[in-house]
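Help! Submission page says 'invalid entity' but I think these are all valid:
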Amino acid sequence: VARIPARVRTKLLAGFLSIVGLLIVLGAVGLNVLGGVNERTQELITLQRKIAAYRQVQHDTTNQLYGMSTALLFTDERMLDAALRQLNQFGYDLDRMAFVAAEEKELLGQVRADFERLAAVVKQVAELTRAGRTAEAREFQRAQSVPLADRLERQTNQLVNLAEADMVAAIDATERTYRASRLAVLLFALGSTLLALGLGYIISSALIEPVNRIEGRLRRIAAGDFEGRVEVANRDEFGALAANLNQTSEELGRLYREIEARTSELSESLQQQTATADVLKVISRSAFDLDTVLNTLVRTAIHLCDATRGAIWLRKGEQFPLAAHAGVPERWVEFAQQNPIVPAADSPMLAGVAAFTGEIVNVEDIPNDPRFRAFEVHKMGDYRGGLAVPLKREGRIEGVIGLSRPEARLFTPRQCQLVQTFADQAVIAIENVRLFEEVQARTKELQESLEYQTATSDVLGVISRSPSELQPVLDAIARTARRLCQADRVLIWRLNEDGMYRTAARDGILAPEFEKLLDPIMPGRGSIVGRVALDRRAVHIDDIQADAEYRVLKGAANDPRRTMLGVPLLSDGTVIGVIVPSRTEARPFTKRQIDLVSTFADQAVIAINNVGLFDEVRARNRELSEALEQQTATSTILRAIAASPTDIQPVLDTVAESAARLCEAYDAAILLADGDALALRAHHGPIPIDFIKWPAGRDWVTGRAFVDRKPVHVRDLIAVEDEFPAGHAMATRMGHRTILAVPLLREDMAIGALVIRRTEVREFTPKQIDLLTTFADQAVIAIENVRLFEEVQARTSELARSVGELKALGEVSQAVNSTLDLKTVLETIVAKAVQLSETDAGAIYVYSKSADRFRLRATYGMSEELIDAIAGQTIGLHDAGIGEAARLRAPVQVADLKLESKSPVQQIVLDAGYRSVLVVPLLRPNKIVGALVVRRKTPGQFEDSTVHLLETFAAQSVLAIQNARLFSEIEEKGHQLEIASRHKSQFLANMSHELRTPLNSVLGFSEMLADGLYGELPEKAKATLARIQANGKHLLGLINDVLDLAKIEAGQLELVIDDYSAGQIVKSAAAATEPLARAKRLELKTVIAKGLPLGRGDERRLTQVLLNLAGNAVKFTDTGSVEIVAKARNGSFEFTVRDTGPGIAPEFQARIFEEFQQVDDSSTRKKGGTGLGLAISKRIVELHGGTIGVKSTPGAGSEFKVTIPVRTVERTKAA
Amino acid sequence: MSKRILMVEDTEDNRQIMRDLMASTDYQLLEAVDGAEGVAMAAREKPDLILMDIQLPVMDGYEAARRIKSDPALRHIPIIAVTSYALSGDEAKTLAAGCDGYVAKPFSPRLLLAKIREFLP
């Protein structure tokens, strides 16, 4: 949206304000004029009213005065009245007169005076008249009234005239004023119009003109004129706008010209593209019709390139015969067809050159061109300019397009390009055709394959559908093979057990009577089946009539077969069958068809094997289901056993039922030993058993099985009277024939028998015999179970009793273990002892050997008085009761204190209401510890079980007392140890201080001496000083190590556990040893594995370890290298320090980690060191929960390996 | 003006080492032989640095350091503990008593000087 420029807005505002101002002025003037006119109008209205009044007066006065006079003359009453009324009327008119001629006051006064006089006269006259004094009246009238009336008339007229004159003057004045006003209004109207016109012009010149100009310019631009300029004098936005417009106009002009140029270009290429598209359309429509494509290309090329003739040559081998042409005369065509283009640089034909060079050949005038004019062919004379463009595909020249025209003119680059495009199109078209043909061939092939595959999968489908039956498969194969091999008949032969081949399936019949003659066939060269069986591979006979070896039915008049194929069904190298397609005409089967039949053969083999497998599986299945059934039965029995562990009967019933069912017997029974007889315990089935018990003996089947302890199976009991006399009798009575009995054996002892019977003669299978044995075993298990169960129950009730005791003992043990407070433990023991022994009170005494006194230590159920009383007694070893038990080292009891109270204590107890007492001594192998006492308020012997129980408690008490003693001893020892340890640390601190103080002087002074603080020293002194320093430092190291070790030994070495970097430790150790290594020219290597985890441990101490190892390695190695390796494995760091030093003899390797041990004293002396470093290192590593070790071969270096957990478990104090 | 160092040390040998050592430097050495004297001298002389032995007669170095550090007027003076208490934990103890640095005996005069220069450059 265009914004009105600010300055234009200002101008518009000014113009608007001017017009408003003008209007205000005009309004004011108009109002003024209107006021004047109003005033005048008022005046005019007054004047008119005056005129009206004047006319009335003029009229009235005359009449009235005349009427009055007349009336008075007639003296008639009525007339008089009228005259008087008229007189009155005149009076009113007088008022009007005053209005008309207000300014003639004098005259008016005279009139009024006259009137009054007249009125008085008239009245008098009237009265006189009425009084009948007519004469008088008349006289009076004549003398007085008439002259008065006349005078009045005169005066009135005078007044009227005066008024008239006034009026005329007033009207004149009004008219003048009006005229003046009108002039003024007119003038203003005129003036303002002029002003408005003036302003309008100014505004239009300032605003409208530029707009108009610009608009006009725009209109011209719209009309396509970009040349003119618009000139606007204004310096304001209009000027800028105009300038912009001019610029835009120029730009537009430029763009327009450009667009015009582009448009013409576009339309040209559009034309070409349209043509190209047309060509493409043709190509795509007739993609596989090359001629059409080529013809279209030639024609279009001619049309688009201003040519008249055109041709296309396509490669065929090394030459390029003519493939398409247009516009060429017949004789040229003949020539071209007879002379294919041969590519050559000096070919007479442009196309030949193009085909040779692969470049475009563009010639302006062929007949006159130096290259071509010599050739006869160009003398036909109907073309001049020529163009040849090669068709290239992947760099190979596939053909040439040639164009020519009758004018001598070069083809433009654009045309060349176009033809090039066409050439490309032609190549594509050629390629398309080639591909199309290929695809078609391929499609045909695929279709065939598909058909074969479908057939194969059909056959497979049949195989999978009928896994158990072979015939449908063979039928399907025969059918499919016939169809796909285009055979007249297919036979499938199978090898029979007699080694002969017989027809198993067929499709297609050649001749009914002929078919019968074939079966069976033996291997041999005389038949195709026989030949396949011999060769074990496919055999193809092109024509059996031409095959010399072929014998079967050869020459038979009705053998219609000619071509035959035999493909073997091979299974494990045996020809188990043959597929034979045959034709009644001599036409060989193709390779594909043979392959197909081979596939079918494979499938047939699979099907045959499948059927075999299927049968096998079916047999296995049957076995399995049998086994399953038996297992189910077994589990049923086991369930019955589990369900009734106490009752044997349900189990026996189940066993009998299952045995009958699974062994296919009608009837089963279980008999168990009962003394010397077998008693019937379970029976299932319809065959009666007419005894409850029968003596066990070999004269009946079940009896024999029981006695011989092995199964007895009789096929027909009726037939063996001699062998089983009793059994035979039973069979006769009960009606069974076949019988099987197995013994129930428990640990080789027969406890009964399981018997099954049949009413017909039918042997039981071995499997059934086995099964029955299993059932017998299960019956035994059930019986055994019940026995065990009963035993367990008896034991359980026994156990339940001891559990209570055990629990109490458990509680006591817990008390003993959970608290070392002896009193608590003893009180627990005595309480439990009293509760469990079902006594009323108890006490524990502890014996003090030195005082020979048993002291009361814990009581239960005793009153305070009793406790006080007993505590007051001295009980010694020689006293009765407690002392006696301790002395005898055996329990002592008093069944009734009333009958035998042996000691004062017992007397006290008796007095407290107790009757019986049991004392159990607390003993250790060679020591009396005390006694446990329980008391009852009833007399009587204590049961043995109670005594045993109390003995157990006594043992617990001994333990508790002992524990408590041990504990207090340990506590005491611990306390002493602590003090000792404190002394030791103090000693260490003192030692440290005392040793360091003198050393400080030694080292301090010697360093300052060496530093030359006391002046330069002689060389010899320097050497001595160096020794002092070295020894001082060694001494310091020794002190440090000894203190470290002492601390470790005292368990005072505390690890400062924190996160550390294993790599950093290695680096620190390496950095510290590096100077010495360098001095000794040793190579110091560090290998730190990547991605080591963050460790946790005492970084300073671990560095000390590694530094010690690295320092040793450098110290003892004279040549070679020292290597420090850090890696992580299995949650541990492995630090390895390897050197090429002298190595360590095996006998030293174990000892070097002990204090003050070095490999040998001489080396130590030579190399220095305290011999404590490794010992300290070992301790530090062990504090970290790690290990340190060495591997070394003397002369081949050493390898120290430190393994420490990545994260050391925090332990505040080393143990 | 040269910086003044107060040495609190009961062993004459060590004092001699310090005297000899200081003779080669611009520092001026003040000496006290026990902790109490050390505290008194520190208050009187207001040295720029104190070298404090720990094992001292009358009042030990820990106590002396604590007293100096509890005096607002002396608190700013750095104290280096120079001690033969060189067992683990001893350094922490001296720092806890208010010392600003720690040098174990036997010390290397060269290193002690370096330590002093850390505080008095």
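Support: the input was valid. A stray whitespace character was the problem, and the output above is from the cleaned input. The longest helix of chain A spans residues 134-222.
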